[in-house]
Amino acid sequence: MKKLPEITERTRRRFVDSFWSLVREKPIGKIAVSELTRRAGYNRSTFYEYFLDTDDLLAYVEEELLEQMKQTIHQLPPENQSPGVLFQNIFAIMNEELYLLIGPNGDLSFLEKIKKELLPLAEAYFPIPKDAPNFDYLVCFANAAMFGLLQHWHEEGKNINAEEISALMQNLVLNGLLAYIPPLPTAKED
Fold first, then answer.
1. Listed residue (150, 57, 64) closest to 99, CA to CA
2. Alpha-carbon distance 175 to 140, whole Å?
3. Is residue 185 left, alpha or beta, with left meaning phi > 0 and alpha meaning psi from -120 to 50?
4. Are 140 and 132 in contact (CB under 8 A)?
5. How far apart are CA 25 and CA 16, in angstroms?
């Protein structure tokens, strides 16, 4: 007897939800199929109907997040085309899951996947001409800085609001750290 699509999707979702629950507690590499199945309420054979192993499940959830990020980029109205707004929207939608993947218990290679999949789409949001010298390095720097800020923001319990973190990211990308350093006093002449 063939399973109904809604049952199949519900079962897959239970495994995904169990995965996220476990990632909140321990590093991805230490999650076992037995833990996933116990938490999801299914047996091992059911898990293997959906995924080859925990790496396959990880690839599934990462692909799901990357697809949601791509959709977010494509849906932003043109007036919101700034690096800070872009990353704020991506992080607001992904929120906990994105942090879990780029955080200390996550998958270090996920940022590389983001870079490969999303940076070409996000380049339009960076106020740097594509023919600028070292364009790829500048975009890479901005990307690393913004993900670092978003990760820190999350770790600090989002102690400033989303608009503030967005403005901070945008100002840092556009003006650098010097915008936050007070001018040095000038020497007085005798």
1. 150
2. 16
3. beta
4. no
5. 15
In terms of phi and psi (left: phi > 0; alpha: psi -120 to 50; beta: otherwise), the region of 13 is alpha
Q: How far apart are CA 95 and CA 150, in angstroms?
A: 9
Confidence band for 1, pLDDT divided at 50, 70 and 90: very low
Dist. CA 96–CA 20, nearest whole Å: 9
What pLDDT score does 34 carry?
Answer: 96
Do you know the residue count of the chain? 190
Location of structure tokens 């670092």? 148
Q: 72, 90 in Cβ contact below 8 A?
A: yes
Contacts 24+ apart (CB under 8 A), 58-67: 58/19, 58/28, 58/107, 60/16, 61/16, 61/19, 61/20, 61/97, 61/101, 62/101, 62/107, 62/110, 62/113, 64/16, 65/94, 65/97, 65/98, 65/101, 66/113, 66/114, 66/117, 66/118
Q: Say if residues 83 and 74 touch (Cβ distance below 8 Å).
A: no
Which tens digits make up the pLDDT trace of 88-129?
676 666 667 888 888 888 888 888 888 787 777 667 777 777
What residue type is assigned to position 21 of the chain?
Answer: S
Give the 3-state secondary structure of residue 42.
coil
- pTM of the entire structure? 0.76
